[in-house]
Amino acid sequence: MDKITFLNYLEDELSRLPKVERDKIMYEYETKFFEAHNEKELIHELGEPKNIAKKVYATSAIQDAELSPNFKNVFQAIMATLGLSFFNIFFIIIPFLIIAFILLIVVVVGALMMLGPIVSVINIFVHGFYWIDITNIIFSISFLGLGLMLLITGLKLIEVCYKGILKYLKWCVKVIRRRAE
User: Which of 27, 59, 81, 96 ranks highest by number of CB atoms within 10 Å?
Assistant: First the structure.
């Protein structure tokens, strides 16, 4: 493979990136070829254009997830990083899905528990005011408090998990880059 073929393959592999980013990356690689003494050695050092594109996509997805923290961006960052190493499937996607499921349950249960006072008020209107019992009021207030604590705890844990996943993904990309150099 020569310089022109390598750069054409790389540009083709980077086609999902916006044109501005793609042009910037292509300029960097063209500069590397301009400064290189031996094109064949540089091509061998750089590796396959497909692997370079995977690293670029992973880095871009992680940056998007940092700038706009939502489930879609984090999931895209995870999927982009999975393309770099099969090892990551077991250490990212499976724990991510388990943790996301558990946190979703915590948040939903917390929100449902906060409905206790609303159910008590509805019950008062359905059965009348003579039905009011101090234990029902205490239970509904305690359910409200417990539900609020679960909801806040779940949301904070989601934030902590989000930051932890991004740190792991960044570390993974750094390790793969070091290994490539």
Answer: 81
